Amino acid sequence: MSRSELVEAASAHPSGLLLQDVNVSFNGRAVLRELNVVVEPGCSVAVMGRSGTGKSTLLSVIGGLIRPDSGSVWVDGEPVHQLNRTDAARYRAQKVGIVFQSGELLPDISAEENVALAGVLGGKTYAQASAESARLLESVEIGKDLHGQLTRELSGGEQARVAVARALIGQPAVLLADEPTGSLDAELRQEVQTLLYGLPRSTGCCLVLVTHDPLVAQGADKTMTLSNGKLAEQPAQEPLAAPAPAASATPATITAQTRDPTRASQPVLSTPGRPFHPGTSSLSTNPPPPPVR
Known about the structure:
Blueprint: H1 3-12, E1 17-26, E2 29-39, E3 44-48, H2 55-62, E4 70-75, E5 78-79, H3 85-95, E6 96-99, H4 111-121, H5 126-139, H6 156-168, E7 174-178, H7 186-203, E8 206-211, H8 214-217, E9 222-227, E10 230-233, E11 270-271, E12 274-275
Parallel strand pairs: 3-8, 3-9, 6-7, 7-8
Antiparallel strand pairs: 1-2, 1-4, 4-5, 9-10, 11-12
Helix pairs in contact: 4-5, 4-6, 5-6, 6-7
């Protein structure tokens, strides 16, 4: 995509995601090179690539955890590449939802508390966060009888759904999914895939999902391959055959609230000097550098 086309796309979709000429290197090694990506609100992109190709680095750049060496990153009209540490924490609290491969849930509190905690850290009162947590859990088909269950007692599929609900509680402008089905069996993988790809249409967010599995990538509106630091869009293909779900399986139904771009600013998702770092279950002053894969 040419520079003029990128600028035109950003002007036409100010609430979407735009990466323009993004470069990232570590210790002299180029990890991301001249990346140009546009994701419109309500759309999804799957990024495929082998381990070590920079997929997680790409998500960290979009999430404001890594500042690119050059280039620009815009999310919902915000210049992510220019944010300082405090503003980047605020940006993640207000505009980013993250779903991890292993969920990263706190095992010794309930499903509802896991989701509500993210809301409280994002600035909601406990009453607001608790009510929103219950609604979101039901929207991802976690029944009320499981809301009070410790997350370590839930099945893998149930934990994956709780993780999705937690990512949605801030009404994010962009949802980042890092190998979200990597630890699930074929049937659960299909269910979570259907759930995730339905979110942009139901909430208006942008979804960026990274995976090495073509069966998972095929559900996205657009598929791109990351190799040697470069992104290349893949042509549309016929859907690959996927394992048939069990007869009792029920299609996922999403009723999550559409993001309200006019809502008031919320407090920063951090304590002074200790920003929240996705991928950990605690607040850290010195997070390890994100893995390159």
